Predict the 3D structure of the following.
Amino acid sequence: MLVSQRHASCFIPVTVILTVLLTLMGCSPENAHYQQPNGIIYCSEGNPASFNPQLDTSGTTVDVSSHQIYDRLLDFDLITGEIIPGLASSWITSTDGLTYTFQLRKNIIFHSTSYFAPTRTFDADDVIFSFNRWRDKNHPYHEVSGGRYPYINSVGLGDLISDIKRINRYRVEITLVRPESSFLANLATDFSIILSAEYADQLAKADTPELIDTHPIGTGPFKFNSFRQDRYVRFDAHPLYWRERSTTEQLIFDITPSSSLRLAKLMTGECDSMAFPTHSQLDIIRKRKELTLDEKPGLNVGFWAFNTTKAPFDNPEVRRALAMAIDKNALMEAIYFGSAIPATSIIPPSSWAFQPDTRSSTYNPLGAAKLLRENGVEEGFSMTIWAMPVERAYNPNAMKMAELMQRYLRDVGIDANIVSYEWSTFRARLNQGLHDSVLIGWSADNGDPDNFFRPLLTCSAIDSGTNRARWCSKEYDKLIDQALTYTNQEDRAYFYSKAIEMINDEMPLMPIAHAFRYQAYRDDLTGIEINPYGGIQFRNVSKP
């Protein structure tokens, strides 16, 4: 059974399709070049679910919003991973680790658009509004746009903060319930954006509070202009941006779900950069003299998650048997083409919490069939594999992977049906727990290993929608909480090693791969960098 509701982009000239076909046959015309509008055009893979990344963990939403429209109190250095100042110029931590005092920058100006003109600069009220919206259930904006804050809730950030105070206009004090070593890193993620309290007040008075997430206002390098579903998102440069930025006056996200058409637009110059080149396209890009392909090890994991709230997937023996039925080495060859490494756990080798001696599931179809029968799963049992309709670095072709897995499962007497929907529908139904299993993954939002352990498998992450296995273990949660009470990496690594052992014993998900991240763009584009900690950034990107 294949359910598919994927929409093709309406913004695709026939000449582009012809160019792809000619190129793949080695007959690309030398003079093929699309005359694009002024500004930078990025070929994106889908529609954003919102223009507020507080509300959605999808990379599509994060890419279009987090670093284009907004700023955060803190940022990450893309090279070192160090936490650096953002809208907060400095901060002080109390000796007991419970109180953080942030000094805010002055003269930071919010966007001025056709629907909002700020009368004051950024200050403490904006920080308090932005944080209280997701942490205070009685806040007037908490339930606006659904009241779901998936990343914030998955890491327990709202429950961690006991109070936030305005010391003066440019100083904010945040008090925690308990010390937590990942707190500052979470404030630097894509999701800890700062909104305009003045804009929120204006919308509340007009009885249109939902516009805060569809017609956004931030302090970022680009301001929202317009959005056409399945077509594009258009931004204009923020002329009074507080940091150095490129001279680019317009940024356009050209929504193109088809990866082959994204590549075609890149080759003809209709796009300057593209999202998620497939691994089969990498050699084509490398051979084009007008294109550049950047590569970095990825802080990510692709996995197969079992819905542990459904029988027989609530039985760890059944989950282990299903994992044993799959030849991961064959998946690596067929899907990743040498641009990923097999995963033995959810933690990638680049993390300090990685355990090199972690055992992984071994392909053993005879053993898998025997274990399934012993646990009451008879031949002919039917289950679903949900496959993402979009490409991601951690899984560039979930549909093909599902088809391969379907064959392996057939060998052990399992009838696997593949399910897919348009991306927003897929994620909405996944959040409802309608799946038996799903091929999906996770890209880190910061370099702290808690960014894998907590969002992917803690009990609180079930309601937030990031725990796709819907697995809840109080023992596991206790280990993760204990790790965060220490600042020393060796102390924390002990608890994480125990958590990894538990994951491998319980098998709520089967880790598959840690993939490299790629960024493809035309060689006249300068300043573009792969962000290992989240969404793409265009602040420093320029072209002639």
Remarks:
- The CA atoms of residues 112 and 118 lie 6 Å apart.
- DSSP finds 19 helices and 19 strands in the chain.
- The longest strand covers residues 161-168.
- The chain has a mean pLDDT of 91.
